[in-house]
Amino acid sequence: MNTRLPHGSIPILSSEKIDVRYVAKLARIALTDDEVERFGTQLADLLTHVDALAQLDIASVSATAQVIESRNVLRDDLPRPGLDRDVVLAQAPASQGGFFRVPRIIAVKGEAS
Amino acid sequence: MSDLLRGTAVQVAAAVNARQASALEVTEAMLAHVEGVEPGVGAYLTRLDESARSHAARVDRRVRSGESLPLAGVPVAVKDNMCLDGTRTTAASKILAGWVSPYTATAVQRIIDAGGIPIGKSNLDEFAMGSSCENSALGITHNPYDPTRVPGGSSGGSAAAVAAHEATIGLGSDTGGSIREPAAFCNLVGFKPTYGRISRYGLIAFASSLDQIGPLTRTVADAALAYEVMAGYDPMDSTSVQRDVETTGKPLPGDLTGVRVGIVREFDLAKLGAEAASLYQRAYGDLQKLGADLVEVALPTAEYGLATYYLIAPAECSSNLSRFDGIRYGLRVEGDDVTQTYEQTRAAGFGPEVKRRILIGTHALSSGYYDAYYVRAQKARTLIARDFAKAFEACDLIACPAASTPAFEFHAKSDPYSMYLMDYYTIPMSLAGLPALSVPCGWITPAGGTVPMPMGLQLTGPLFAERALLGAAHVYEQATRHAGAHAPQIGGAR
Questions:
Q1: pLDDT 10s digits, B86-128
Q2: Residue B174's beta-bridge partner residues?
Q3: B318 catalytic per annotation
Q4: Are residues B356 and A43, on separate chains, in Cβ contact within 8 Å?
Q5: pLDDT, tens only, B170-200
Q6: Is residue B106 domain-shared with residue B211, that is, in the same domain?
Q7: Which of A66, B79, B228, B363 lies 20 to 30 Å (CA to CA) from residue A15?
Q8: B58 and B161 housed in the same domain
Q9: Are A42 and B356 a contacting pair at CB < 8 A?
Protein backbone atom coordinates (compact mmCIF):
# COMPACT_ATOMS: atom_id res chain seq x y z
CA MET A 1 0.00 0.00 0.00
CA ASN A 2 1.10 3.55 -0.61
CA THR A 3 1.98 5.45 2.49
CA ARG A 4 2.04 9.21 2.50
CA LEU A 5 4.89 10.60 4.49
CA PRO A 6 4.68 13.68 6.69
CA HIS A 7 7.38 15.58 4.81
CA GLY A 8 7.38 14.30 1.27
CA SER A 9 4.96 14.24 -1.57
CA ILE A 10 6.28 10.97 -2.98
CA PRO A 11 4.88 7.74 -1.63
CA ILE A 12 7.28 5.00 -0.66
CA LEU A 13 6.03 1.53 -1.29
CA SER A 14 6.12 -1.52 0.84
CA SER A 15 9.23 -3.46 0.03
CA GLU A 16 7.56 -6.88 -0.03
CA LYS A 17 5.70 -5.76 -3.11
CA ILE A 18 8.33 -6.80 -5.63
CA ASP A 19 6.75 -9.27 -8.03
CA VAL A 20 9.84 -10.98 -9.39
CA ARG A 21 8.02 -12.90 -12.13
CA TYR A 22 6.41 -9.74 -13.46
CA VAL A 23 9.64 -7.73 -13.32
CA ALA A 24 11.56 -10.56 -15.03
CA LYS A 25 8.99 -10.53 -17.79
CA LEU A 26 9.49 -6.79 -18.26
CA ALA A 27 13.27 -7.34 -18.29
CA ARG A 28 13.00 -10.28 -20.71
CA ILE A 29 14.86 -12.72 -18.49
CA ALA A 30 13.54 -16.26 -18.08
CA LEU A 31 13.85 -17.31 -14.43
CA THR A 32 13.72 -20.76 -12.89
CA ASP A 33 11.40 -21.30 -9.91
CA ASP A 34 14.48 -21.45 -7.72
CA GLU A 35 15.65 -18.07 -9.03
CA VAL A 36 12.22 -16.54 -8.49
CA GLU A 37 12.34 -17.59 -4.86
CA ARG A 38 15.97 -16.63 -4.25
CA PHE A 39 15.86 -13.28 -6.04
CA GLY A 40 12.51 -12.51 -4.42
CA THR A 41 14.04 -12.84 -0.96
CA GLN A 42 17.25 -11.02 -1.86
CA LEU A 43 15.55 -8.14 -3.64
CA ALA A 44 12.97 -7.67 -0.90
CA ASP A 45 15.89 -7.50 1.56
CA LEU A 46 17.64 -4.92 -0.59
CA LEU A 47 14.46 -2.86 -0.86
CA THR A 48 14.15 -2.72 2.93
CA HIS A 49 17.56 -1.03 2.98
CA VAL A 50 16.49 1.29 0.18
CA ASP A 51 13.41 2.30 2.18
CA ALA A 52 15.75 4.36 4.36
CA LEU A 53 15.46 7.06 1.72
CA ALA A 54 11.95 7.72 3.02
CA GLN A 55 13.59 9.54 5.92
CA LEU A 56 14.98 12.25 3.66
CA ASP A 57 13.05 15.46 3.20
CA ILE A 58 13.03 15.75 -0.57
CA ALA A 59 9.82 17.69 -1.13
CA SER A 60 11.57 20.75 -2.53
CA VAL A 61 14.64 19.06 -4.00
CA SER A 62 15.23 18.75 -7.71
CA ALA A 63 16.35 15.45 -9.19
CA THR A 64 19.92 14.93 -10.41
CA ALA A 65 20.37 12.84 -13.54
CA GLN A 66 23.92 13.96 -14.19
CA VAL A 67 26.31 15.80 -11.87
CA ILE A 68 28.33 17.64 -14.46
CA GLU A 69 26.59 20.43 -16.29
CA SER A 70 25.78 19.11 -19.73
CA ARG A 71 24.33 20.58 -22.86
CA ASN A 72 23.33 19.32 -26.25
CA VAL A 73 26.28 18.47 -28.42
CA LEU A 74 25.78 18.63 -32.14
CA ARG A 75 28.34 17.68 -34.72
CA ASP A 76 28.45 18.71 -38.34
CA ASP A 77 26.31 16.43 -40.43
CA LEU A 78 29.13 15.17 -42.61
CA PRO A 79 29.46 11.66 -43.97
CA ARG A 80 32.32 9.67 -42.43
CA PRO A 81 33.29 6.04 -42.42
CA GLY A 82 31.43 3.79 -40.00
CA LEU A 83 32.11 0.23 -38.96
CA ASP A 84 32.66 -2.18 -41.84
CA ARG A 85 29.51 -4.21 -42.55
CA ASP A 86 31.31 -7.53 -42.90
CA VAL A 87 33.19 -6.98 -39.64
CA VAL A 88 29.95 -6.20 -37.81
CA LEU A 89 27.97 -9.06 -39.33
CA ALA A 90 30.79 -11.46 -38.50
CA GLN A 91 29.79 -10.89 -34.85
CA ALA A 92 26.10 -11.57 -35.45
CA PRO A 93 24.57 -14.80 -34.15
CA ALA A 94 22.91 -15.15 -37.58
CA SER A 95 23.04 -13.07 -40.73
CA GLN A 96 21.84 -13.39 -44.28
CA GLY A 97 22.45 -11.35 -47.41
CA GLY A 98 24.15 -8.51 -45.58
CA PHE A 99 21.51 -8.28 -42.85
CA PHE A 100 21.01 -9.53 -39.31
CA ARG A 101 18.82 -12.59 -39.35
CA VAL A 102 16.24 -12.25 -36.57
CA PRO A 103 13.71 -14.63 -35.11
CA ARG A 104 10.20 -14.48 -36.53
CA ILE A 105 8.25 -11.64 -34.95
CA ILE A 106 4.87 -11.96 -36.65
CA ALA A 107 3.08 -15.30 -36.73
CA VAL A 108 1.93 -16.58 -40.12
CA LYS A 109 -1.84 -17.08 -40.34
CA GLY A 110 -2.80 -20.69 -39.77
CA GLU A 111 0.46 -21.55 -38.03
CA ALA A 112 0.81 -21.87 -34.32
CA SER A 113 2.84 -18.93 -33.05
CA MET B 1 65.47 -5.78 -17.21
CA SER B 2 63.81 -7.21 -14.11
CA ASP B 3 64.38 -3.80 -12.51
CA LEU B 4 62.21 -2.30 -15.21
CA LEU B 5 59.43 -4.82 -14.56
CA ARG B 6 59.48 -3.69 -10.93
CA GLY B 7 59.89 -0.06 -11.96
CA THR B 8 57.31 2.66 -12.34
CA ALA B 9 55.77 3.82 -15.59
CA VAL B 10 57.80 7.00 -15.27
CA GLN B 11 61.02 4.94 -15.08
CA VAL B 12 60.10 2.54 -17.90
CA ALA B 13 59.18 5.40 -20.26
CA ALA B 14 62.37 7.28 -19.37
CA ALA B 15 64.53 4.21 -20.08
CA VAL B 16 62.83 3.48 -23.39
CA ASN B 17 62.88 7.11 -24.50
CA ALA B 18 66.61 7.27 -23.61
CA ARG B 19 67.08 4.01 -25.56
CA GLN B 20 68.61 2.31 -22.51
CA ALA B 21 66.08 -0.44 -23.13
CA SER B 22 63.82 -1.12 -26.08
CA ALA B 23 60.07 -1.41 -25.77
CA LEU B 24 60.37 -4.86 -27.27
CA GLU B 25 62.86 -5.96 -24.58
CA VAL B 26 60.55 -4.66 -21.85
CA THR B 27 57.60 -6.39 -23.48
CA GLU B 28 59.37 -9.73 -23.89
CA ALA B 29 60.50 -9.65 -20.26
CA MET B 30 56.96 -8.79 -19.17
CA LEU B 31 55.37 -11.54 -21.24
CA ALA B 32 57.78 -14.08 -19.73
CA HIS B 33 56.96 -12.86 -16.22
CA VAL B 34 53.22 -13.02 -16.95
CA GLU B 35 53.61 -16.57 -18.23
CA GLY B 36 55.30 -17.51 -14.96
CA VAL B 37 52.90 -15.94 -12.47
CA GLU B 38 49.51 -16.11 -14.21
CA PRO B 39 48.72 -19.63 -13.00
CA GLY B 40 48.76 -18.30 -9.44
CA VAL B 41 47.08 -14.94 -10.07
CA GLY B 42 44.60 -15.24 -12.93
CA ALA B 43 44.59 -11.52 -13.67
CA TYR B 44 44.00 -11.83 -17.40
CA LEU B 45 41.08 -13.23 -19.37
CA THR B 46 42.87 -12.73 -22.70
CA ARG B 47 46.60 -12.35 -23.22
CA LEU B 48 47.76 -10.18 -26.09
CA ASP B 49 51.32 -11.44 -26.59
CA GLU B 50 51.44 -11.03 -30.35
CA SER B 51 49.82 -7.61 -30.56
CA ALA B 52 51.97 -6.49 -27.60
CA ARG B 53 55.08 -7.35 -29.61
CA SER B 54 53.88 -5.44 -32.65
CA HIS B 55 52.88 -2.42 -30.54
CA ALA B 56 56.34 -2.54 -28.93
CA ALA B 57 58.08 -2.69 -32.30
CA ARG B 58 56.07 0.34 -33.41
CA VAL B 59 57.03 2.24 -30.23
CA ASP B 60 60.69 1.43 -30.84
CA ARG B 61 60.46 2.76 -34.39
CA ARG B 62 58.89 5.98 -33.14
CA VAL B 63 61.55 6.42 -30.45
CA ARG B 64 64.32 5.75 -32.97
CA SER B 65 62.84 8.42 -35.23
CA GLY B 66 63.26 10.94 -32.42
CA GLU B 67 59.86 10.93 -30.71
CA SER B 68 59.62 11.04 -26.93
CA LEU B 69 56.49 9.23 -25.72
CA PRO B 70 54.96 9.69 -22.26
CA LEU B 71 54.31 5.95 -21.90
CA ALA B 72 57.05 4.58 -24.15
CA GLY B 73 57.07 0.80 -23.72
CA VAL B 74 54.96 0.83 -20.54
CA PRO B 75 53.07 -2.48 -20.10
CA VAL B 76 49.35 -1.91 -19.50
CA ALA B 77 46.55 -4.19 -18.29
CA VAL B 78 43.24 -3.26 -19.92
CA LYS B 79 40.07 -4.10 -18.01
CA ASP B 80 37.99 -6.36 -20.21
CA ASN B 81 35.06 -3.97 -20.40
CA MET B 82 37.10 -1.67 -22.64
CA CYS B 83 37.12 -2.25 -26.36
CA LEU B 84 40.34 -2.95 -28.24
CA ASP B 85 39.99 -3.45 -31.96
CA GLY B 86 40.33 -7.06 -33.04
CA THR B 87 40.50 -8.49 -29.51
CA ARG B 88 37.97 -10.47 -27.53
CA THR B 89 36.12 -8.12 -25.17
CA THR B 90 33.86 -9.97 -22.76
CA ALA B 91 32.93 -7.81 -19.73
CA ALA B 92 33.57 -11.18 -17.99
CA SER B 93 30.11 -12.28 -19.15
CA LYS B 94 28.99 -15.40 -20.95
CA ILE B 95 26.78 -13.20 -23.11
CA LEU B 96 29.90 -11.62 -24.66
CA ALA B 97 32.32 -14.52 -24.23
CA GLY B 98 33.02 -14.77 -27.96
CA TRP B 99 32.68 -11.13 -28.97
CA VAL B 100 35.56 -9.48 -30.81
CA SER B 101 35.53 -5.70 -30.59
CA PRO B 102 35.47 -3.94 -33.98
CA TYR B 103 36.86 -0.68 -32.57
CA THR B 104 39.05 0.73 -29.78
CA ALA B 105 37.95 2.72 -26.74
CA THR B 106 39.23 6.31 -26.74
CA ALA B 107 41.04 5.89 -23.40
CA VAL B 108 42.80 2.76 -24.63
CA GLN B 109 43.69 4.41 -27.96
CA ARG B 110 45.25 7.35 -26.10
CA ILE B 111 47.34 4.93 -24.02
CA ILE B 112 48.54 3.18 -27.19
CA ASP B 113 49.25 6.47 -28.98
CA ALA B 114 51.33 7.53 -25.96
CA GLY B 115 53.49 4.41 -26.30
CA GLY B 116 51.73 2.11 -23.81
CA ILE B 117 51.65 -1.62 -24.59
CA PRO B 118 48.43 -3.55 -23.84
CA ILE B 119 49.61 -6.85 -22.33
CA GLY B 120 46.20 -8.40 -21.80
CA LYS B 121 42.52 -7.92 -21.05
CA SER B 122 42.00 -8.22 -17.32
CA ASN B 123 39.29 -9.91 -15.29
CA LEU B 124 36.41 -8.08 -13.64
CA ASP B 125 33.10 -8.71 -11.98
CA GLU B 126 30.61 -9.37 -14.77
CA PHE B 127 29.75 -6.01 -16.39
CA ALA B 128 31.73 -4.36 -13.55
CA MET B 129 29.05 -5.29 -11.01
CA GLY B 130 30.76 -6.40 -7.83
CA SER B 131 33.50 -5.73 -5.31
CA SER B 132 35.61 -8.90 -5.39
CA CYS B 133 35.89 -10.17 -8.98
CA GLU B 134 33.95 -13.23 -7.80
CA ASN B 135 31.09 -12.28 -10.11
CA SER B 136 33.25 -12.94 -13.18
CA ALA B 137 31.69 -15.67 -15.30
CA LEU B 138 35.00 -16.36 -16.98
CA GLY B 139 37.79 -16.62 -14.41
CA ILE B 140 39.03 -16.40 -10.84
CA THR B 141 41.54 -13.74 -9.84
CA HIS B 142 43.62 -14.09 -6.68
CA ASN B 143 45.07 -11.32 -4.54
CA PRO B 144 48.84 -11.45 -5.07
CA TYR B 145 49.40 -10.49 -1.41
CA ASP B 146 47.42 -13.52 -0.19
CA PRO B 147 46.04 -15.80 -2.90
CA THR B 148 43.35 -17.11 -0.54
CA ARG B 149 41.81 -13.63 -0.71
CA VAL B 150 40.01 -11.64 -3.37
CA PRO B 151 41.71 -8.81 -5.27
CA GLY B 152 38.66 -6.57 -4.86
CA GLY B 153 36.48 -5.42 -7.68
CA SER B 154 35.24 -4.80 -10.03
CA SER B 155 38.64 -3.84 -11.53
CA GLY B 156 40.25 -6.77 -9.68
CA GLY B 157 42.11 -8.18 -12.68
CA SER B 158 43.89 -4.91 -13.39
CA ALA B 159 44.66 -4.50 -9.68
CA ALA B 160 46.10 -8.01 -9.35
CA ALA B 161 48.09 -7.59 -12.57
CA VAL B 162 49.80 -4.42 -11.36
CA ALA B 163 50.34 -5.80 -7.84
CA ALA B 164 52.00 -8.94 -9.25
CA HIS B 165 54.09 -6.82 -11.65
CA GLU B 166 52.23 -8.29 -14.64
CA ALA B 167 51.64 -4.73 -15.83
CA THR B 168 52.91 -1.30 -14.82
CA ILE B 169 49.61 0.48 -15.30
CA GLY B 170 46.18 -1.09 -14.94
CA LEU B 171 43.15 0.49 -16.54
CA GLY B 172 40.01 0.28 -14.46
CA SER B 173 36.52 1.70 -14.46
CA ASP B 174 34.81 2.99 -11.33
CA THR B 175 31.05 3.26 -10.95
CA GLY B 176 30.74 3.08 -7.15
CA GLY B 177 34.29 2.22 -6.07
CA SER B 178 35.51 -0.29 -8.64
CA ILE B 179 38.96 1.33 -8.97
CA ARG B 180 39.48 2.54 -5.40
CA GLU B 181 38.49 -0.63 -3.51
CA PRO B 182 40.67 -3.07 -5.52
CA ALA B 183 43.53 -0.55 -5.30
CA ALA B 184 43.19 -0.59 -1.51
CA PHE B 185 43.05 -4.41 -1.46
CA CYS B 186 46.16 -4.76 -3.69
CA ASN B 187 48.45 -2.06 -2.24
CA LEU B 188 48.03 0.31 -5.17
CA VAL B 189 47.05 3.83 -6.01
CA GLY B 190 43.62 3.80 -7.65
CA PHE B 191 42.35 7.04 -9.14
CA LYS B 192 38.83 7.89 -10.28
CA PRO B 193 38.85 11.32 -11.93
CA THR B 194 35.90 13.70 -12.02
CA TYR B 195 32.97 12.26 -13.96
CA GLY B 196 33.44 13.22 -17.60
CA ARG B 197 37.21 13.76 -17.50
CA ILE B 198 37.99 10.59 -19.46
CA SER B 199 35.92 9.53 -22.43
CA ARG B 200 33.62 6.54 -21.94
CA TYR B 201 33.57 5.80 -25.68
CA GLY B 202 34.30 2.09 -26.00
CA LEU B 203 33.71 1.36 -22.31
CA ILE B 204 30.90 -1.19 -22.02
CA ALA B 205 28.27 0.78 -20.13
CA PHE B 206 27.08 -0.20 -16.66
CA ALA B 207 25.61 3.00 -15.16
CA SER B 208 26.32 5.82 -17.57
CA SER B 209 25.90 8.73 -15.17
CA LEU B 210 28.49 7.20 -12.82
CA ASP B 211 30.96 5.19 -14.94
CA GLN B 212 34.44 6.68 -15.12
CA ILE B 213 37.72 5.21 -16.37
CA GLY B 214 40.91 5.64 -14.35
CA PRO B 215 44.31 4.10 -13.61
CA LEU B 216 45.59 1.66 -10.98
CA THR B 217 49.32 2.08 -10.42
CA ARG B 218 52.08 1.51 -7.90
CA THR B 219 52.74 5.26 -7.41
CA VAL B 220 50.77 8.49 -7.45
CA ALA B 221 53.12 9.91 -10.10
CA ASP B 222 52.22 7.00 -12.39
CA ALA B 223 48.51 7.57 -11.77
CA ALA B 224 48.97 11.24 -12.71
CA LEU B 225 50.85 10.26 -15.86
CA ALA B 226 48.23 7.75 -17.01
CA TYR B 227 45.43 10.18 -16.17
CA GLU B 228 46.98 12.98 -18.19
CA VAL B 229 47.38 10.68 -21.20
CA MET B 230 43.72 9.54 -21.08
CA ALA B 231 41.90 12.71 -19.98
CA GLY B 232 40.36 15.35 -22.18
CA TYR B 233 37.41 16.01 -24.40
CA ASP B 234 36.37 13.38 -26.89
CA PRO B 235 33.74 14.16 -29.53
CA MET B 236 32.70 10.49 -29.38
CA ASP B 237 31.43 10.90 -25.78
CA SER B 238 28.98 13.77 -25.42
CA THR B 239 29.38 13.67 -21.62
CA SER B 240 33.14 14.12 -21.74
CA VAL B 241 33.94 17.60 -20.44
CA GLN B 242 35.41 20.36 -22.57
CA ARG B 243 37.85 21.71 -20.07
CA ASP B 244 41.63 21.86 -19.96
CA VAL B 245 43.43 19.10 -18.11
CA GLU B 246 46.05 20.52 -15.76
CA THR B 247 49.24 18.65 -16.50
CA THR B 248 52.24 17.93 -14.34
CA GLY B 249 54.37 20.39 -16.27
CA LYS B 250 55.11 21.68 -12.79
CA PRO B 251 56.27 19.10 -10.23
CA LEU B 252 53.85 17.68 -7.69
CA PRO B 253 54.17 19.72 -4.46
CA GLY B 254 56.47 18.86 -1.56
CA ASP B 255 54.26 19.41 1.48
CA LEU B 256 50.70 20.06 2.59
CA THR B 257 51.19 23.44 4.27
CA GLY B 258 47.91 25.28 4.30
CA VAL B 259 45.90 22.43 2.80
CA ARG B 260 42.64 22.00 4.71
CA VAL B 261 41.76 18.31 4.99
CA GLY B 262 38.19 17.52 5.96
CA ILE B 263 37.48 14.60 8.29
CA VAL B 264 33.89 13.44 7.96
CA ARG B 265 31.97 13.66 11.23
CA GLU B 266 29.53 10.90 10.25
CA PHE B 267 32.18 8.33 9.36
CA ASP B 268 32.69 6.60 12.71
CA LEU B 269 36.05 4.85 12.55
CA ALA B 270 35.25 2.81 15.66
CA LYS B 271 32.87 0.77 13.50
CA LEU B 272 35.89 -0.57 11.61
CA GLY B 273 37.47 -2.11 14.71
CA ALA B 274 40.28 -0.85 16.90
CA GLU B 275 43.12 -1.76 14.60
CA ALA B 276 41.68 -0.13 11.47
CA ALA B 277 40.51 2.87 13.49
CA SER B 278 43.99 3.54 14.82
CA LEU B 279 45.47 3.01 11.36
CA TYR B 280 43.25 5.72 9.91
CA GLN B 281 43.81 7.99 12.91
CA ARG B 282 47.52 7.67 12.24
CA ALA B 283 46.97 8.49 8.56
CA TYR B 284 45.03 11.65 9.48
CA GLY B 285 47.81 12.52 11.96
CA ASP B 286 50.41 12.08 9.24
CA LEU B 287 48.54 14.48 6.97
CA GLN B 288 48.61 16.98 9.82
CA LYS B 289 52.34 16.45 10.41
CA LEU B 290 52.88 17.18 6.73
CA GLY B 291 51.33 20.61 7.24
CA ALA B 292 47.65 20.03 6.60
CA ASP B 293 45.01 21.62 8.80
CA LEU B 294 42.45 19.01 9.82
CA VAL B 295 38.88 20.30 9.94
CA GLU B 296 35.70 18.43 10.76
CA VAL B 297 33.14 18.44 7.98
CA ALA B 298 29.59 17.12 7.91
CA LEU B 299 28.14 14.84 5.24
CA PRO B 300 24.77 14.09 6.84
CA THR B 301 23.34 12.44 3.73
CA ALA B 302 26.39 10.27 2.95
CA GLU B 303 24.84 7.41 4.87
CA TYR B 304 22.07 7.35 2.27
CA GLY B 305 24.63 6.84 -0.47
CA LEU B 306 24.30 3.08 -0.61
CA ALA B 307 20.49 3.15 -0.85
CA THR B 308 20.64 5.87 -3.48
CA TYR B 309 23.27 4.06 -5.50
CA TYR B 310 21.46 0.72 -5.42
CA LEU B 311 18.50 2.33 -7.14
CA ILE B 312 20.26 4.59 -9.63
CA ALA B 313 22.98 2.18 -10.79
CA PRO B 314 20.62 -0.79 -11.33
CA ALA B 315 18.08 1.47 -13.05
CA GLU B 316 20.72 2.64 -15.50
CA CYS B 317 22.09 -0.89 -15.92
CA SER B 318 18.67 -2.35 -16.66
CA SER B 319 18.39 0.13 -19.49
CA ASN B 320 21.99 -0.21 -20.75
CA LEU B 321 21.97 -4.00 -20.71
CA SER B 322 18.75 -4.23 -22.70
CA ARG B 323 21.00 -4.17 -25.79
CA PHE B 324 22.13 -7.71 -25.01
CA ASP B 325 19.23 -9.47 -26.66
CA GLY B 326 20.88 -12.09 -28.88
CA ILE B 327 20.07 -10.31 -32.13
CA ARG B 328 23.07 -8.33 -33.35
CA TYR B 329 26.02 -9.73 -31.44
CA GLY B 330 26.92 -11.95 -28.53
CA LEU B 331 25.19 -15.09 -27.37
CA ARG B 332 21.84 -16.18 -28.85
CA VAL B 333 19.72 -18.98 -27.46
CA GLU B 334 16.98 -19.72 -29.99
CA GLY B 335 13.46 -19.82 -28.62
CA ASP B 336 10.11 -20.54 -30.30
CA ASP B 337 9.55 -16.84 -30.92
CA VAL B 338 11.40 -13.58 -30.52
CA THR B 339 10.34 -12.99 -26.91
CA GLN B 340 11.45 -16.43 -25.88
CA THR B 341 14.73 -15.87 -27.71
CA TYR B 342 15.31 -12.70 -25.69
CA GLU B 343 14.31 -14.36 -22.43
CA GLN B 344 16.40 -17.49 -22.89
CA THR B 345 19.41 -15.65 -24.27
CA ARG B 346 19.47 -13.33 -21.27
CA ALA B 347 18.76 -16.18 -18.83
CA ALA B 348 21.73 -18.14 -20.16
CA GLY B 349 24.03 -15.17 -20.76
CA PHE B 350 23.81 -13.18 -17.52
CA GLY B 351 25.08 -14.31 -14.12
CA PRO B 352 23.11 -13.97 -10.87
CA GLU B 353 24.39 -10.54 -9.82
CA VAL B 354 23.67 -9.02 -13.22
CA LYS B 355 20.18 -10.52 -13.16
CA ARG B 356 19.58 -9.16 -9.66
CA ARG B 357 20.59 -5.67 -10.70
CA ILE B 358 18.56 -5.72 -13.89
CA LEU B 359 15.54 -6.88 -11.90
CA ILE B 360 15.88 -4.27 -9.17
CA GLY B 361 16.47 -1.58 -11.79
CA THR B 362 13.50 -2.67 -13.86
CA HIS B 363 11.37 -2.64 -10.71
CA ALA B 364 12.59 0.85 -9.76
CA LEU B 365 11.75 2.18 -13.22
CA SER B 366 8.45 0.38 -13.64
CA SER B 367 5.12 2.10 -13.71
CA GLY B 368 3.88 2.90 -10.20
CA TYR B 369 7.32 2.63 -8.63
CA TYR B 370 9.27 5.18 -10.67
CA ASP B 371 8.60 8.15 -8.38
CA ALA B 372 8.90 6.18 -5.18
CA TYR B 373 12.25 4.70 -6.06
CA TYR B 374 14.05 6.20 -9.02
CA VAL B 375 13.05 9.85 -8.68
CA ARG B 376 13.48 9.70 -4.92
CA ALA B 377 17.00 8.36 -5.40
CA GLN B 378 17.82 11.10 -7.91
CA LYS B 379 16.68 13.67 -5.36
CA ALA B 380 18.78 12.03 -2.66
CA ARG B 381 21.68 12.28 -5.10
CA THR B 382 21.13 16.03 -5.25
CA LEU B 383 21.32 16.25 -1.46
CA ILE B 384 24.52 14.18 -1.34
CA ALA B 385 26.20 16.36 -3.96
CA ARG B 386 25.05 19.45 -2.06
CA ASP B 387 26.57 18.16 1.19
CA PHE B 388 29.91 17.72 -0.52
CA ALA B 389 29.76 21.19 -2.06
CA LYS B 390 29.09 22.64 1.38
CA ALA B 391 31.91 20.60 2.95
CA PHE B 392 34.33 21.88 0.34
CA GLU B 393 33.62 25.45 1.45
CA ALA B 394 35.50 24.53 4.62
CA CYS B 395 38.16 22.19 3.25
CA ASP B 396 40.24 21.48 0.15
CA LEU B 397 40.22 17.69 0.36
CA ILE B 398 38.35 15.04 2.31
CA ALA B 399 40.17 12.10 3.89
CA CYS B 400 38.42 8.86 4.84
CA PRO B 401 38.82 5.09 4.44
CA ALA B 402 38.70 3.59 0.94
CA ALA B 403 37.20 0.32 2.19
CA SER B 404 35.96 -0.83 5.59
CA THR B 405 38.14 -3.97 5.69
CA PRO B 406 41.25 -5.39 4.07
CA ALA B 407 40.79 -7.96 1.29
CA PHE B 408 38.52 -10.79 2.41
CA GLU B 409 38.59 -14.49 1.65
CA PHE B 410 36.74 -16.02 -1.29
CA HIS B 411 33.04 -16.71 -0.61
CA ALA B 412 33.11 -14.56 2.55
CA LYS B 413 30.24 -12.31 1.41
CA SER B 414 27.39 -14.71 0.85
CA ASP B 415 24.47 -12.29 0.77
CA PRO B 416 24.43 -9.51 -1.82
CA TYR B 417 23.95 -6.68 0.65
CA SER B 418 27.09 -7.53 2.63
CA MET B 419 29.04 -7.22 -0.62
CA TYR B 420 27.34 -3.90 -1.40
CA LEU B 421 28.51 -2.59 1.98
CA MET B 422 32.12 -2.84 0.75
CA ASP B 423 31.49 0.34 -1.23
CA TYR B 424 30.08 2.33 1.69
CA TYR B 425 32.94 4.86 1.64
CA THR B 426 33.35 5.16 -2.12
CA ILE B 427 29.77 5.45 -3.35
CA PRO B 428 28.94 8.97 -2.07
CA MET B 429 31.84 10.46 -4.06
CA SER B 430 30.69 8.64 -7.18
CA LEU B 431 27.16 9.96 -6.81
CA ALA B 432 28.58 13.48 -6.55
CA GLY B 433 30.88 12.89 -9.54
CA LEU B 434 33.95 13.88 -7.53
CA PRO B 435 37.58 12.95 -8.19
CA ALA B 436 38.79 10.50 -5.56
CA LEU B 437 41.70 8.14 -5.09
CA SER B 438 42.94 5.44 -2.79
CA VAL B 439 46.56 5.52 -1.63
CA PRO B 440 48.24 2.84 0.53
CA CYS B 441 48.13 3.81 4.24
CA GLY B 442 49.27 0.75 6.17
CA TRP B 443 48.77 -2.95 6.82
CA ILE B 444 46.47 -5.10 8.90
CA THR B 445 46.63 -8.82 9.46
CA PRO B 446 42.96 -9.82 9.18
CA ALA B 447 41.41 -12.15 11.75
CA GLY B 448 42.13 -15.64 10.49
CA GLY B 449 44.74 -14.32 8.07
CA THR B 450 48.41 -15.23 8.11
CA VAL B 451 49.99 -12.23 6.41
CA PRO B 452 49.50 -8.46 6.61
CA MET B 453 47.14 -7.03 4.00
CA PRO B 454 47.20 -3.48 2.65
CA MET B 455 44.71 -0.75 3.52
CA GLY B 456 43.84 2.36 1.51
CA LEU B 457 43.28 5.97 2.49
CA GLN B 458 40.73 7.68 0.28
CA LEU B 459 41.27 11.32 -0.62
CA THR B 460 38.48 13.21 -2.40
CA GLY B 461 38.59 16.63 -4.01
CA PRO B 462 36.08 19.09 -5.40
CA LEU B 463 34.99 18.69 -9.03
CA PHE B 464 37.94 19.04 -11.43
CA ALA B 465 40.49 19.39 -8.59
CA GLU B 466 42.52 16.42 -9.85
CA ARG B 467 45.77 18.31 -9.73
CA ALA B 468 45.47 19.25 -6.03
CA LEU B 469 44.24 15.77 -5.18
CA LEU B 470 47.13 14.00 -6.89
CA GLY B 471 49.58 16.49 -5.39
CA ALA B 472 48.41 15.84 -1.84
CA ALA B 473 48.37 12.08 -2.36
CA HIS B 474 51.92 12.25 -3.73
CA VAL B 475 53.12 14.16 -0.65
CA TYR B 476 51.47 11.64 1.68
CA GLU B 477 52.84 8.66 -0.27
CA GLN B 478 56.40 9.98 -0.40
CA ALA B 479 56.40 10.80 3.31
CA THR B 480 54.90 7.53 4.52
CA ARG B 481 55.92 4.92 1.93
CA HIS B 482 53.55 2.27 3.28
CA ALA B 483 53.39 0.39 -0.02
CA GLY B 484 56.97 -0.84 0.18
CA ALA B 485 56.61 -2.46 3.62
CA HIS B 486 55.58 -5.89 2.30
CA ALA B 487 56.05 -7.74 -0.97
CA PRO B 488 53.34 -9.70 -2.75
CA GLN B 489 53.45 -13.48 -2.25
CA ILE B 490 53.08 -13.89 -6.01
CA GLY B 491 54.90 -11.74 -8.54
CA GLY B 492 58.00 -10.90 -6.53
CA ALA B 493 59.51 -8.13 -4.47
CA ARG B 494 58.47 -4.58 -5.11
A1: 999 999 999 999 999 999 999 999 999 999 999 999 999 999 9
A2: B212
A3: no
A4: yes
A5: 999 999 999 999 999 999 999 999 999 999 9
A6: yes
A7: A66
A8: yes
A9: yes
